[in-house]
Request: fold
Amino acid sequence: MHAYRSHTCAQLRKSDVGANVRLSGWVHRVRDHGGLLFIDLRDHYGLTQIVADPDSPCFKVAETVRGEWVIRVDGEVKARKDETVNANLPTGEIEIFARGMEVLSKAKELPLPVFGEPDYPEDIRLKYRFLDLRRETLHRNIVQRTKIIAEMRKRMADVGFTEYSTPILTASSPEGARDFLVPSRLHEGKFYALPQAPQIYKQLIMVSGFDRYFQIAPCFRDEDPRADRLPGEFYQLDLEMSFVEQEDVLSTMEPVLRQVFETFANGKPVTQKFPRISYDEAMRKYGSDKPDLRNPIVMEAVSEHFAGSGFKVFANILATDEKAEVWAIPAKTGGSRAFCDRMNSWAQGEGQPGLGYIFWRKEGDKLEGAGPIAKNIGEERTAAIAAQLGLGDGDACFFVAGDPKKFVAFAGAARTRAGEELNLVDRDRFELCWIVDFPFFEWNEDEKKIDFAHNPFSMPQGGMEGLQGDDPLALKAFQYDMVCNGFEIASGGIRNHLPETMVKAFEMVGLGRETVEERFGGLYRAFQYGAPPHGGMAAGIDRIVMLLVGAKNLREVTMFPMNQQAQDLLMNAPSAATPQQLRELHLRIAPTTTKDA
Reply:
């Protein structure tokens, strides 16, 4: 027999009754039933119940074991009595009567519980991550993550992609975040950068004559923690294709990611044909370029019903600002003054003066609007708003007014708040869509100039001719995002593969040809020697896994994450370098002065 186990703790079934077996694992818990000991033994695969009675040769050893000790057990497989069968456990019809037991490793008193998985302070969980990873939910999430990545690799191979690896030590790139820099020992005063993404390398792979590249790529960004991204590093399904237009990328990747979702959705519905929604339409209807389409609320412009009305606040805004509009946020089933007042209070907590509303109720056979706005604009206009939005008895509507560019984010947040408060969001489904036609440029109010809105390497719609148009802020890019349940899970674009078009785009944000040659010399140089039209995207693996397993936090799907202060509490990183290391790297630590701070 093997030194440690003949079976795993998930293998044995009723068909194994009578067999002599050997199991090894962790003591999940011990129960003493009047001298009869029950030990739940756990390994990576599952649980098996061990029974030791006073007649067992190993009973004295069994009496000493405690939670998370590692033990080896020899014994006979027996069938449980009908009334003791555990239908929730694959091994629930059997138990092992222990005849031999050896303690392989003892455990100190635990700093956090493994059995039962109660909430526990995150810093403790991260410091003792090796214990945290033994907990059932997190352990299952990590296993599921590996299966999801394996499924991605299989699906990509099925549609003709080949996995290629790109460098980790590289040059600084313009992905929009701060680089992690690595000092060079051999080249004094110079630094490598960890890649924010394999963007330039994957384009060079296309220029090199390869086609349909992908990799499960680690990406590194030294940015402040965000709710939807881990500090430090994250992983993405990175891909690029040659001789493609936008439609080719979308039609290739939509079934790949739909099938990944379907495989791990546990029966939840998955969107079959992803809607294509322009950026402008998404902002107007949902107030976000990553809309949660499970929320049925769709915003609409209702300016005509307020222009010249008795509600002077909105009427004056419309009369004095040619950019101004009034948007409606319809809220079916929200037609109570208590709910409307809660929404108004929430808006004030968001720094807004309030949130105007109307709610409707039936008075006999007549539908009447209630609230200050309804009184000021009158029955006819109130009825017209209800008709436009399809609202009726028991429904409400909220309103925002002004320049949409200034209020759109708040309007989107109000839409989300109303949908969640009224329980309108169908949480048991995966709603996916494409957001397309992103702006190529945006206005930088601080520097009073235009900047790239998304990815500087994307092809502007219309190419060079588009860049020479009258209004650069109206120019769209061949850029697209995939969104699921309110999360951006992928982003990509058709690349600008023409060197002069690339230079022109950078010149429009104030960066000349010399800057392009200096900062992106490898890519710019490559484009001089025959570059195919190409495009691709990258899908965020951490976010996809989080959605599929139903986790609330990215740290629940990552094996060894940092905390929100970008610290690895398990390995005590970042840590100080020794004087010898600093000398070898030609570095000296400059103390922070009051002025620097």
